[in-house]
## 1
Amino acid sequence: MKSFQAIVISKSDDKQRAELSTLSEEDLMDGDVTVAIEYSTLNYKDGLAISGAAPIVRRFPLIPGIDFSGSVIESTNGRFTKGDKVILNGFGVGEVHHGGFSQIGRVKGDWLVALPGGMSTRHAMGVGTAGYTAMLSVLGLEDHGLRPADGDILVTGAAGGVGSVAIMLLAKRGYRVVAVTGRVSETEYLRNVGASEVLDRQEFSDPARPLGKERWAGAVDVAGGNTLANVLSQMKYGGMVAACGLADSMKLPTSVAPFILRGVTLKGIDSVMADLKTRTRAWDRLAQDLDLETLDSICTEVSLQDVLGLGESIIAGKIRGRTIVNPVA
C-alpha cells in the first residue's frame, strides 16, 4: 500500500500527543472517494485539537484538520471521477473521521463539494472553513434583507480567519464595515482588507446593558460571551447578528430586551452539517465575490511540521488572516 505523511493525534494515560507520522492507505477510514490532498488550513478548531485545549478529537488515533482540497484519486461515488477537484469541510472530519492534515484522505462523496470554476485548490483553502463560515454569515445577513443603505455592519474577531474574509466579502458588496479586534496593532491590515473603522475589543468586554445606543444594522460575531451580549444591545431596530463562534465564551449573558423591544434576530451559523445546496451556494458566491489577489495577501503557507507548533498560537489570537497547510511542502 502507498505510504504518506500525516499528523496523527494519539492518547495514552489521558495525555494527548500530536506528531508527524508515516501511514499507509490501509490506515484510512471508510469512504467512497479517495483524494490526493493538495492543501488544508489551520482553523481555530484545529488549534484546539492539536493543543488538546478542548476535547475536539473524539476518537484516537486520528488525523486532525477539518478541511481540505485536492484531486480525486479513486471514486465509487457517482458524483465524482478520477481527477475531479474537490473541497471538504465539516461532517466531523478532523474530529471523528481522519482529516486534512495529511497527504491522502478518504471520505464519503456526499461530504464533498466540487471546486467552483475560476478557483484553485490553493485559493479554496485560502478560504477554508473560516472563509466558508464567513460567507454563510454574509448570506444570512442578505437573506434577512440587510442592504448597504441600512447602516454599518460590525465584525468581531476581525483579524482572524472568519473576520478577515467577512470584511472582504461585505466591503466588496458595498457595506460599511466596522471591525472589532483585540489587536489594534492590526488596524492597517484590517483597513487593507476593507474595514472602514476599527474598534478595540475592550469596548465590548464589560457586562452588557439590556439596551444600548442603536449602532449596527447587522453583525458577524465569532466571540460569544460579553462581546456578543454587547453587540446585541447595540443593534438597530430589526437588525440581525450572525453568530458563528465562541472565541470569547460559549455563554451569552444577555436579556430578552433586544429581541422583544427592537425585533433583533440572532441567527446561528453552522458550517459543519449544512446541506449540499447551502454549501454549493456559499462556495459559488465565494468564487464570484472574493478578490483573489486580496485573499492571497492575507494567506501564509506552512508545512505539516509547522502546524504542530501553531495550535496554541491560533487559539491565543496570535495568528492573523489565513494559514494554508501544504502537506507536501
Note: The longest strand covers residues 3-12.
## 2
Amino acid sequence: MHALVLACAAQAVYIVAFVLFKTAVGRMAPLSGRHPLRTGTELVAGASWLAAVFLLIGGFAISAAALVTLPVAAALPAYGLSLMLLLVVGMSGFGERPTSREWLAVVVTVAAMVTAALSVLPGAGESLADALHRTGGEDAAGALPLWKAGLVFVPSLAVPIWMFSVRDRPVAGRHARPVTGIAYGVGAGVLLGATEAFGLGTAMLLADGAGVGVLATPHPYLFLLAGVLGLGLVSIGLQRCRLTIIVTVVTVTAKTHLLLSATLLFGEPWPGDVAPFGLRVAGVLLAVLALLAFPRHERRAASVPDVVPDELRGRPGPGVPQSPPPAGWPVRPAPHVRPAGIRHDGQWAAPYDHRVSG
C-alpha cells in the first residue's frame, strides 16, 4: 500500500512539473529541434524551466522507489487518475477545450490502464498484498547485457531523431491546419519511458546495496541521455501545442513503453493464467488504440458566410481559434516575441522572433 501511495504522489509531481514546463517555454523564443544547441541554451537559461527539471527528477525518484517492489501494471491506475487532474488544470488554467474525439481518446487511455492493472489481481490462494508485491529484478539489472539495453534505447532514440529531422517544421499557409502534437508526444513519450526504465534499474541496484557500483552499469548513463533528449522534445511540444494533448500522449506512450521495457530488462512478471494474460495484452492494445484515436490536426476555423454585409466586409470577425495560444498559462511574453493572436481567418498567429530567420 505504501508503494501505491508513492506512485500516486509521483504522478501529482509530474503534472505540476509539466505545468511549470508549459509556463516556462511560453516565455521563450520559438524552440526547434533542428537547432539543438540554440534550443538547449535557451532552455537552460530559464530558471523556471530548470526548476521544472528538478521537480520532474524528483517525480522520477518517487516513482522508481514505488516500482522497486510494486509491479508496473499495478501502478497504472495512478497514472490514469493523474490525467483527470491534468484535464482540470488544462481547462481551468490554460483555457483548453478538448474535442469529443479527444475525450474519447482519454477515456480509452484510462480504460487501457485499468484493464492492464486488473491483470495483477490475486489468483486462487494468493492475497492482495502478495499480488501487489514484486521481488527480484536486481540480478537482471546488475547483469544487463548491452544488446538488451540497445533494444530499448535505440528505438526510443530513432523516433525523436526522425521528429527532429523530418517532422519538426513550422505550419505555414493560409489553409494549413496546426498539429495537435501527437508526434511530439509519442517521441517524448518513448524517451521518457526509457528514462523511467533505466531509472528503475538504477533504483533496484541502489536498493540492493550496489552503491557506487551502479556506475559500472549502463543504467545511470542511459537514464541521463534519454532524459535530456526527452525533456528537450517535450518542451518543444509544449510550446507549440496544448498541454492536455501533449501530456496525455506522453503518459500513455511512456507507461506502455515502461511496462514492455521492464519485462525485457528486469523480467517484469506477466500473468500465466489465460484471463489475466488476456487482460494485460488487452491493456497494451487499448493504449495503442488510444494513440490512434487522438486527432492529428486541430479543428478548422468556422467558415465565412457567403453573404456578408458591405459595411462589415473586410473587417476582422471573431473567428474560432484552432487551439489555445502556445504560451500556456497567462504570462507576459519576452520582449523579442510577438504574442500569439487570432488572425482574421480564425487561425492563431504564430509567435515571431526577429532573431530567427526563415
Note: The two ends are 54 Å apart (CA to CA).
## 3
Amino acid sequence: MYHIERTDDLSGLMAESAAWDDLSGGVPLRESAWLGNWWAVYGRGLEAYVVTVRDRDAALCGLLPLYRLKTAREGRTLSAMGDGTTCTDHFSLLARERDSQAIAAAVGQWLARASRDARDGWDLIDIDGIVGGDRTAAAMTAALCGEGATSHASSRMSTWIKDTSDDWEAHLARLSKTHRRKTRQHRKRLEAGREFSLRIAASKEEVRTDLNQLMDLHQRRWTSVGEPGSFATLESRQFLHSTAQALFDRGQLQLASIVVDGETAGSELRIIGRDRMMYCYCTGMDPAFADLEPGRLLNIQGLVYAYEQQLRGIDCLRGDEPYKARLLAEPRPLIRLRIVAPSLLPRLRHAAWLTQFELKQFLRRRTGRSVVQTLSLA
C-alpha cells in the first residue's frame, strides 16, 4: 500500500515543500520553512535521515524528518530536525489525519527492520519535543515496540495551550475578580496608547530591526543570571532571521513590540499557523521598564488579537512560567522519547543509560528537587 524509503537529500524534498506542508497539520514548527531553514543553518556535518512515505501514485503522504549522528556512547542515533537550542515543539511523524495511524504503523515496522540494515541502520531514536496526546507518534512507537524495540518516554516540562474558541467576555468571566479588573485596565492602556505605542513589524526591514532588539533583550535577561540564553551563537540568530523572513513572506509572522520614547520595552515573536493557532515562540523584556509590565501588556494584546481574529487558541510553547497559568492556558507534557533498536548492543547501552537515569532520579528526591516525569506516550 505504501512505498517507504530513507533519503539524505533534503534539498530534493524542498522541491516538494507544498506537499510537505500539507502533511504538517498546519503546525508551523513542522513545516518546510522552519525545518528547512534549521537544516540549512545547523545541518553542516550531519547526515539527513528523512523517512518518506509515498502512495501508489508516488505522491508524498508521510514524512519523518530526522538526522543521524554516531557517538561512542550511544552509537548510531536518530534525532529530530529542529532540536537543540531552537526548542522545536510539536515534532512528529507527518501525515494527514485520515491516514496517520496506518502510516505510523508502517513507518514503525520499517524503522525496526531498517535498524539492522547496512545503509539505514540505527541504534537509538532520541526525540525531544513531542507533545502529549500525539496519537501518530504513539502509533509509530507501538509499532516499533511490536517489532522488538524498547521505548522510554519522559517529561521535564510542559507546553501550554490557551483555548480561544469562546469569546473575550467568557475568558474574563473565568478570571478572579482582581485579575479581571487588572486585565481590563491593561487593555484600556493598550487602546489609549498614551504611555507607550504598540508596533507590529510591517516590513522586512522592521522585522530585521525588531528581531535584533528582541534577541538582545532576551540575551540580556539570561546573561544577567549566568545562563547562555537561546541566542548566544551566530547560528541561532541566523536561523531565526532567515525563518522570520520566510514566515513574513507567507503572512504568518507577527512581531509585536511595546515602545516607549523610541525605546523597546518588550517584544514577542508569534507565528500564526495554518491550523488557526498562534504560537508564541520567544519574548524579550527590558528590566528598565519593569514598572510598565510590558510582558503582561503583550500577553493581553495577543489574547485580544486571537479572540478578534477568531483563532482556535494560543500555544505558549515549552516552559512552565507562572504567567501561562494566569492566561488560563492548560499544560500538556512535552515528551522526550527514546526508542532502542531490537539488538543486543543497543539494549546493553540502554540498560546503562537507564541505571544512570534512575540514579539521578534518586538524587533529585534526596535533595528535594522535582523528579523527571516518566509516562506512557499513549
Note: The longest helix spans residues 344-366.
